[in-house]
Design brief:
alpha+beta
Length: about 280
């Protein structure tokens, strides 16, 4: 049978193969993978979406819609804009109803959908299905499952449970490579309800540092540090449209792309960014 989660991964893999082909200069292969991905995307909407509920079903011919069947398409860009609100609302209604492995994609889905406040609340939860619970039961490394009540033979040293270890740098603080080897660095913070945070993230070119303090009605003061021989793009937090943005004390006009505001071609070194 056609399974929703499996086909979501298939779609993502086709897009990744397209990217690899493009880097290798294999334009014909890239076009083939793009065409196959588009075919999967179209079939996904036709076969696996239930228009009566506004949700994706678990598989072809089924009626049940699970968290998994909706969070994976949301994480991988398979949910069209006109269907996104209903899918996001359903995903949020289910909480952390997935394994520690699934939590990776649940949090990615929420951050990609702009639900940073809710995503942060899941990471800082103290419920049974939480990282705080792993600490509370005495583990010094992430567990294989949320708690022994969910898996009686769980191990106490499971790297796939360390989801915040990559979600915090990649999504909360927003540090990702825009070009190979971090030649150009994206910094796109999604602070959520945090009032202050700072991070140092190692890269092949040196450490990237980001810190911020929030004040007033979602105003922010950032300090960023980029390694030598790199440039950066800084995306302003999406909490509001800012009327005054300063880079190193000078008033600047951000570039825009849709609702996104950003500063581009920031050089290496330490910089301050104020968003008001």
């Amino acid at each position: 049978p056609i399974n929703t989660v499996v086909n979501a991964f298939h779609y993502l893999n086709l897009l990744q193969m397209k990217q690899i082909a493009e880097v290798l200069g294999k334009t014909a292969d890239a076009a083939t993978f793009q065409q196959k991905a588009q075919t999967v995307y179209n079939s996904f909407q036709t076969v696996l979406f239930n228009p009566s509920t506004g949700l994706y079903i678990d598989g072809e011919g089924l009626t049940h819609s699970s968290l998994h069947a909706n969070m994976w398409p949301l994480a991988f860009g398979l949910v069209p804009e006109d269907k996104k609100a209903g899918v996001v609302a359903f995903v949020k209604s289910r909480g952390m109803a997935c394994s520690v492995y699934g939590a990776q994609y649940l949090l990615e889905a929420l951050y990609r959908a702009g639900e940073e406040d809710y995503a942060l609340s899941l990471m800082t939860s103290t419920a049974k299905r939480s990282w705080m619970n792993m600490i509370a039961v005495g583990s010094t490394m992430t567990l294989e499952a949320w708690d022994i009540q969910y898996k009686s033979n769980l191990d106490w040293n499971h790297a796939w449970g360390a989801v915040p270890g990559n979600i915090i740098p990649r999504f909360v603080m927003g540090i990702e490579p825009m070009e190979p080897g971090f030649r150009k660095i994206l910094i796109q913070p999604r602070p959520g309800t945090l009032g202050h945070a700072d991070i140092t993230t190692p890269t092949i070119r040196g450490a990237v540092k980001v810190s911020f303090t929030k004040s007033g009605q979602n105003d922010y003061d950032f300090t960023i540090e980029l390694p030598a021989n790199t440039t950066g793009r800084f995306v302003l937090p999406a909490k509001k449209t800012y009327t005054a943005v300063m880079l190193d004390g000078a008033l600047v006009t951000p570039q825009t792309q849709g609702a996104m505001q950003y500063l581009d071609s920031i050089g290496s070194g330490v910089h301050t960014i104020t968003c008001q």
